[in-house]
Specification:
The structure is a homodimer. By secondary structure, chain A is α/β, with parallel strands linked by helices. The first copy, chain A, folds into 2 domains: 135 residues, 2-Layer Sandwich (Nucleotidyltransferase, domain 5), CATH 3.30.420; 126 residues, ATPase, nucleotide binding domain (Nucleotidyltransferase, domain 5, 2-Layer Sandwich). Chain A has 11 helices and 10 strands. In chain A, the strands form 2 sheets. A 5-stranded mixed sheet of chain A has the order 3-2-1-4-5. In chain A, β4, α2 and β5 form a beta-alpha-beta unit. The longest helix of chain A is centred in the last third of the chain and has 21 residues. Chain A is globular. Chains A, B: It holds the Pfam family BcrAD_BadFG.
Chain lengths: 313, 313
């Protein structure tokens, strides 16, 4: 297949809030991109999830011949859902209508995020947004998943955890009779309640637990000791999660997800924590759809590093 | 009213799973007891809750004249519900049909549990069962409530927390590839799944979060390091909660709730933790209905200490 200069690759990065697709040729020239609503089959009904993925793919393909697509990688959180027979059948039937010239390889969002930070086949990726999870990547595949237990059991250092800790710090302050200012004041304002223990508990329990993630910006935005303490603990917990996933001390570490962006206070605190632990400087993940397309091109290209530089500059 | 040897008192201890009532005279002679299903208005619809409370009271009164009841105390968790106008109206209308010869004083379950351990007016009570909460008691009333934030935000050291920590320890062990034995094996068996990360996460999330409390006996029953670590951390967290509530170093400390029974491993670990912190030996709460009856008799008796000894030997 090498040297087939008409071959195309299709990459998909499917999340809970958006589905993105990218089509390129083997020189790394981007021929189209597509975007649709969230397509994660764990947070959307199967017909909707598959429709969103396919919609993003069709938009990226544009007028190009789908049978020219020789490699397709679909990355998403909860990729094990693809092994569910009912979902798999639904996916294959809808996907067949795309008319791609190849099979589609499902991989975890961690594998895509890792490739979005480095062309290396092996290392560690840490993703933190609403949730938090790390993966040990070996040969561009998931070798181990650490954390990612969800809000009930884990997600330490995630936006959910930050919001929950903000409410907990507020309750502790109110029980102590501490002054209502900084983070405590921000949490009570956000919840729309007077600074009173029972009112805060009732308000925090009034909507779905995962909505506590909406309070995370109060932590990264406040500058008092309570917020500082939560930020520091988040960085330590996230570094611990990454450390458990890490295959060795020399392979690269990739950080992904909104919370770990270099502009985010958690991303900054985590980088400082990793530096204090003498880790090499972590890489920041670029766009997932481009990384998925790069993974799709891997078996078809003789120069994966150059292609990586072109697709993920 | 002193010296009225026909006066009766009625005490009620209303919980989520049972409602108990006790009628005595002012010498501490028990004239009747009653029991009904749970009557906590936060976990049962108002008509059911009030019907259970009233049923227990009627059974305790038996053939005695309700108008002879000169003191009535009703203790329950979530007593603030009594201030809810809709619930309050419903309660008063049903309660009036009992024909008591006095008003009914609602108090927290903490105040009743404290009185069930000591006749002192001031001190600390720590209650741990499915949840965990401490109260600072002053003059037989709640002066401060510490913890009791519920499963989403807190309940550290409670049965819920023990169960959640058991699942977390299991996930950590599975991620590390540790041998499947002891607590890890017990948790997987209880959840009915193979010892596999994803299966454990899915099973633990399959029912209501509070059901994690059902895994607590696995922790107190196991004898490996993982269980030992959870038991120790529970004791430290519970002692911290009690310490925050404590008015001073000399007033009594009362322990209540199934988890803190001297036969329970958590109760034992907590007593050891308090001893290590040089606290005086804590007292163990006796039956709540008898304590509520004693509180009801307080304004009517000249010898509360003797009455306490009789009602709560």
């Amino acid at each position: 297949m090498h040297g087939d200069d008409t071959a195309l690759v299709l990459g998909l990065d499917v999340g809970g809030t958006s589905s993105r697709a990218l089509v390129s040729d083997l020189t790394g020239r981007v021929l189209g991109t597509g975007e649709a609503a969230g397509g994660n089959p764990n947070s959307h009904p199967a017909p909707d999830a598959v429709a969103q993925m396919a919609g993003a793919a069709r938009e990226a393909l544009g007028g190009h011949d789908p049978s020219a697509v020789r490699g397709c990688v679909l990355g998403m959180a909860g990729v094990s859902k693809m092994a569910d027979p009912a979902f798999g059948e639904f996916f294959r039937s809808e996907w067949a209508r795309l008319g791609l010239g190849c099979e589609t390889t499902p991989v975890s969002d961690g594998v895509v995020a890792f490739a979005a930070g480095t062309p290396e086949p092996r290392g560690t990726v840490l993703i933190a947004g609403t949730g938090a999870v790390a993966e040990r990547v070996e040969d561009h595949r998931t070798a181990a998943t650490i954390g990612g237990w969800g809000w009930l059991l884990g997600d330490e250092g995630s936006a959910y955890w930050l919001g929950r800790e903000a409410v907990r710090a507020t309750l502790r302050a109110l029980e102590r009779g501490a002054p209502v200012e900084g983070l405590v004041e921000a949490v009570c304002d956000h919840l729309g309640v007077a600074p009173e223990r029972k009112a805060v508990i009732v308000a925090a329990n009034a909507s779905k637990p995962i909505h506590l993630a909406e309070l995370a910006p109060l932590v990264t935005g406040a500058e008092d000791d309570a917020a500082e303490d939560i930020v520091h603990r988040a960085a330590v917990l996230l570094a611990d999660t990454a450390a458990t996933a890490r295959p060795d001390q020399h392979s690269p570490v990739v950080l992904a997800g909104g919370l770990l962006h270099p502009d985010n206070r958690i991303g900054q605190a985590l980088r400082a924590e990793l530096e204090a632990r003498s880790w090499p400087e972590p890489r920041t993940a670029g766009p997932g759809a481009a990384a998925a397309a790069w993974l799709a091109a891997l078996p078809l290209t003789q120069d994966p590093n150059s292609l990586h530089k072109t697709l993920l500059p």
